[in-house]
Amino acid sequence: MRVPLPEHHNALVLVESGHAKSGSEHARDGELFVFENSGAFVELVAKEDSHLLVMAGEPIDEPIASYGPFVMNTRSELAAAVRDFELGKFGPVPA
């Protein structure tokens, strides 16, 4: 199946369940395909009954700082986000 995408967008395909193929790459439950500005579509083949989630967007060309599930632009923003989380400012998080 060809999934159309706007040109110059990056795309990420999550295999929520099943087994899929794109080119020579394979992905199964919980694995990803990553496409960087690769054209106007992505080609996906389900190798069995599968559920895929396709996400795409323009690259933001900004610096990235990450720590676990936290992603910010700078280390100071990252430290502030972790501090806010530890102080409970994100609300309750289910275990």
UniProtKB/TrEMBL annotation:
Q: Where is the Pirin C-terminal domain?
A: 3-91
Domain of life, per lineage:
Bacteria
Give start-end of the signal peptide: none
This protein's name? Pirin C-terminal domain-containing protein
Organism, scientific name: Nannocystis pusilla
Q: What is the lineage of its organism?
A: Bacteria, Pseudomonadati, Myxococcota, Polyangia, Nannocystales
